[in-house]
Each structure stands twice: as structure tokens, then as C-alpha cells.
Amino acid sequence: MLKKKRGKEGNAAKYTTRNQALVRLQLKLADFRRLCILKGIHPREPKKKTKGAHKTYYHVKDINFLAHEPLLELQRELRAQRKKIRKAKGRLETEKVERLERSLPRVSLDHLVKERYPSFIDALRDLDDALTMLHLFATLPADATFRIPAKRVNNARRLSLEWQAYVTRTHALRKVFISVKGIYYQAEVVGQQVTWLVPHQLMQVMPTDVDFRVMLTFLEFYEEDEKEEAGEEGEGGESEEEEAEDEEGAEGEEEKQGAVQAAAGADGEDGGKAMARMLMSRKRRGLYDAMQMGRAKKAAGVALLHERRLKAAAAAGGAKGDAAGGGAAGSGAGKKGGQQAKKGKQEKKSWR
Fold it and tell me: What is the pLDDT of residues 43-56, one digit of tens each?
């Protein structure tokens, strides 16, 4: 009877540790977590942990599934492009920075939404967590310490208001319950019960033990999910002229009205695409504003450093002048004292 090779059967062959998965996929931990959240892959608990009880395990089939994900290569390209942008900013090559930012590859999660939710009913069944997360971020303050940008908060607030407008217009609300956590709402959409939680309108205390980067990754996928559902729920589609206006970059009130139409009354895929284009244009403007703010801060820092150097040089010159003046005064006093001593000797001789 042949002896079985170790690691070829059982839990050792079915499960792999997180470190082994990182080595195989050639990813950093943050990128791996983001990819797992977007793909809906979660850790597993094998009956027998062959590599140790303190390690995190994933199914080998899930890791093989991740290895063929197109978003994997796109993340590598984004990381390389951002590295070039950081170097160009350090060298103050503004034109190169603008060119690199314009050529950043666009990240689209449409294929992930269609993969996880093949039908509209499947998306509705998983809408509870998405709506709860959107309403939570709509009440959170934008905070640089926790890396919560104001743009994401405003987008979550807009999507939550659009959902509330849809529920109000269709008279889909069925139940409301007030608790300590917040207000629970339940609506009926296409025969499916959708329940979500809205926090109370109070000052939110930001906990320090919560990783908001993970929550922002969930929010990113839910924003994409909301765009897909807005496209499928609508009845009247936008015309080709309106889509062309969105591509040319309509701003201000026209852009806001187009976003509401795409969410509440757009037809299928056209509404989702229009909203995606508008979100992308806002993202580009936000990146440009951030770059302009960075330039202004850097120029102010350079001016302040130059002013400090001038003050230091002036102070050093004044100290040298004082030292030279003191030396001259000392030599003058020495000469005067010598003359007085000589005069005293002459008077003494004449007295004798």
C-alpha cells in the first residue's frame, strides 16, 4: 500500500493560510482585503488547522478564483501609476503629475455586481446591508484622521436621499420601528422585504477601534450596487442628447438633476452608465482640487523656509557687526589709556 503524501489530501489541500495566499497572488494585505470584500470571499474555519490555530484560513478554490480576477492586474497598474505620481510630485513636475493622473486606469465594478447578483431579485435580497451602510456614512462627519473623505460622505447622503424619494413616491414603506440604535424602516420592493437602519440625528462619536478603510471598501461596492439598481428600477430612459451632455462634463445644477434622473427614472444600463460617468467626473475634479491645494501648501512652505533663512542670515550678520564694533572700541580705549599713562609719567618727572 502506497503511503499518501503529506499535504495532498484533507484540510491541508483544501485550505490555505492568508500569508500563503498573499505570496501566491503577489499582493499586499490591504489590496488583498479589498479584493476579498469586492468578490464576497470570507475566511473559513477548517475542522483541523494544520498550520496553527492563530492563523487565518481561506479556501483554495476561493484563492484560485481570485487569481483569475481582472481587477487583480488593474490594482497592480494603479499601484505602479500612483508610485510614479508620488515621485513626480516630489520633483515638482506638475505637468507630468497632471498627465499621469489623467491616464489613471478606470476601476469598474460592474462585472462584480453582475457576477454576485445575476438577477435583480438577488440584488434586492442583499440590499439591507447596503442601505444601512449608506445611511450610516451619510451621518458621519468627514474626518482626515479616519480617512473619510467629504466626497464619499456627500455621495452616500445623495444616494440615501434618492432611495428615500423612491420609497416615498412608490408608497413602498410598510413598517417603522424606533430603537436605541436608530430608526428601522421596512419597505416592499417588487415583492421583496427590504429593511434598513437609519441612525439618530445626533453627533456621531468616531470609535478608534474600527477600521474605516474596510468599511469604505464595502461602501465602494454598495455605491456601485446602488447605481446598478437605479438603472434597473427606472422606467423612462435618457435621450442620446442628454447622455452626450453628461460626457462633455455638465456641471452645477444640471449635473445634480441628471444624477437624480439616472437614479430615479433612468432606463436600465443607460442610467447606470450616466451616473458612473458623473461620479467619475466629480472624482477627477476632486483630484485636481487636491493637487492645486497641495501646490499652494508647498509654495507657502517654501516661502516660509526662505523667510527663515533670510532672518537667520540677517541675525548672523548683526552678530558679526557687533563683534567688530566691540573690537574697535576696545582698541580705542587701549590707546587712550596709554596716552594718559604717558602724560602722568611726564607730570611726575616735572614735579621731581
Answer: 888 887 877 888 88
